[in-house]
Design goal:
about 300 residues, alpha/beta, Rossmann fold, three-stranded parallel β-sheet, 10 helices, binds nicotinamide-adenine-dinucleotide
Length: about 300
């Protein structure tokens, strides 16, 4: 392996410590940032994410509430839960863990969250603010975490060609919007590839910074990567592996070994973008709490 490993665990820990210091500072003026996470149903991966979000919150000195609702919950019941959290002064930030059960209308749910508490940044008001470069936007935690990784690792985005594979509202689109803004971690030239892109490998090979957010195990192979590129792997995929106790292993959207042999820097899975996502969620919750202080 020749690539530098971008360590999301260490970087995420550093950010969480910074947040904890700010939480202690807010405590002096009587504010304890509070995050509510709503989980509907029993998706095993979501259960893990929700648990780690709650734990990270408490470790940073924040107030944490997890609301677990059965898969049989109606749309109206979920909306009523959101209304209650919108009105709760102890809750500064909230998120509804996605994906929601298929019968639910996710759009309507996301729009019901008070934009001032929308720490996931999925409400159209925050999406609009992100696109227009308004600094009060809540930036979606995963792409925000990727941007922080690039900044803190000294990867120059200004003038770089960043190629993003994936166009979801959660990762690909906000990632593109962050990288084209002016300022640190921005000023990049961005190309977004997706499932209808013609000759994706040829475009990926033009990237100085290649970001994979596809959800397909080891999709990005070495022939899609320009030697010396920085490769960020957002994917988290479960692959059957009978040699493991759980019967599966986690891997990213990038074929790690062969790509690490030619890239200049790469994120591992696990231990890359994942821990950054949680750190940025805490940062957003802190931002929401500070907003209430500002009035
Ligand atoms: P998604 O399924 O909503 O979107 C996947 C995108 O990949 C789509 O836009 C689609 O156009 C594109 N795509 C699919 N097949 C393709 C193909 N053959 N060629 C080109 N493009 C293709 O997924 P998502 O929510 O954006 O998540 C992507 C991955 O990132 C998943 O593995 C998910 O688990 C992971 N993820 C990780 C974190 C984290 O904290 N690390 C957070 C969110 C998502």
């Amino acid at each position: 392996m020749t690539a530098r490993l971008l360590d999301g665990v260490a970087m995420g820990r550093a950010i969480r410590q910074e947040v904890a210091q700010d939480v202690a500072r807010l405590a002096q003026v009587g504010i304890k940032p509070g995050l509510a996470v709503v989980l509907v149903g029993e998706d095993p991966a979501s259960q893990v994410y929700v648990r780690s979000k709650g734990k990270a919150c408490e470790e940073a000195g924040m107030h944490s509430v997890t609301i677990r609702l059965p898969a049989t919950t109606t749309q109206a019941e979920l909306l009523a839960t959101i209304d209650k959290l919108n009105a709760d002064p102890a809750i500064h930030g909230m998120l509804v863990q996605l994906p929601l059960p298929k019968a639910m209308n996710s759009e309507q749910v996301l729009r019901r969250i008070d934009p001032r508490k929308d720490v996931d940044g999925f409400h159209p008001e925050n999406v609009g603010k992100l696109v227009t470069g308004d600094p009060t936007a809540f930036r979606p935690a995963t792409p925000y975490g990727v941007q922080q990784m690039l900044i803190r690792s000294g990867v120059e985005t200004k003038g770089a060609h960043a190629v993003i594979i994936g166009r979801s509202n959660i990762v690909g689109k906000p990632m593109a919007n962050l990288l084209i803004q002016q300022g640190p971690g921005g000023d990049a030239t961005v190309t977004v590839c997706h499932s209808r892109t013609r000759d994706l490998p040829a475009i990926a090979r033009q990237a100085d910074i290649l970001i994979a957010a596809i959800g397909k195990a080891e999709f990005v192979t070495a022939d899609m990567v320009r030697p010396g590129a920085v490769v960020i792997d957002v994917g988290i995929n479960r692959v059957d592996d009978p040699t493991k106790e759980k019967g599966y292993r986690l891997c990213g959207d990038v074929a790690f070994e062969p790509v690490a042999a030619i890239a200049s820097a790469i994120t591992p899975v696990p231990g890359g973008v994942g821990p950054m996502t949680i750190a940025m969620l805490l940062k957003n919750t802190l931002q929401a709490a500070e907003l209430t202080r500002a009035g």
